[in-house]
């Protein structure tokens, strides 16, 4: 009986899971596109990878911001990425 009840909710849960995972899927597609384009063009895409790294970092912060309830934890969420970004831009 529980399998019959679970079947109608399966498409809804799959849709909601795909929607939650959409930013990560977009990042994956952009990374695969960058690798494919680099292999085809035989040119390094340094600016593209720099942009993609920053965009993925911001995406990770944005997707987890709602899950963190306390202000101090939100600052901890920003902290390591801010340090990495500072090192990235100062090279």
Descriptive report:
Helix 1 runs antiparallel to helix 2 and helix 2 (46-64) runs antiparallel to helix 3 (71-89). The radius of gyration is 19 Å and the shape is flat. The longest helix has 40 residues, at 2-41. The mean pLDDT is 77. It contains three helices and no strands. It has one domain (2-89). 0% of the residues are buried. By secondary structure, it is mainly α.
Summary?
The chain is mainly alpha-helical and 91 residues long. It has helices at residues 2-41, 46-64, 71-89. It has one domain.
User: What is the molecular shape?
Assistant: flat
Helicity level, as a percent range? over 70%
Tally of helical runs: 3
Q: What is the CA-based Rg, rounded?
A: 19 Å
Number of domains as seen in the coordinates: 1
Protein structure class: mainly alpha
The proportion of residues in beta strands is under 5%
Instruction: Return the string of H and E elements.
Output: HHH
Strand tally is 0
Query: For the report, how would you describe the main beta sheet?
Result: none
Mean pLDDT: 77
Report the end-to-end length measured between terminal Cα atoms.
Answer: 61 Å
Q: Low-confidence segments, ≥5 residues, pLDDT <50?
A: none
List the helices and strands and how they pair.
Blueprint: H1 2-41, H2 46-64, H3 71-89
Helix pairs in contact: 1-2, 2-3
């Amino acid at each position: 009986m529980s399998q019959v009840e679970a079947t109608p909710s399966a498409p809804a849960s799959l849709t909601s899971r795909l929607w939650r995972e959409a930013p990560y899927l977009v990042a994956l597609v952009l990374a695969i596109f960058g690798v494919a384009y680099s292999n085809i063009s035989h040119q390094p895409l340094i600016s593209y990878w720099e942009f993609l790294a920053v965009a993925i970092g911001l995406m990770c912060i944005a997707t987890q911001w709602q899950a963190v309830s306390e202000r101090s934890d939100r600052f901890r969420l920003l902290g390591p990425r801010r340090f990495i970004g500072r090192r990235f831009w100062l090279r």
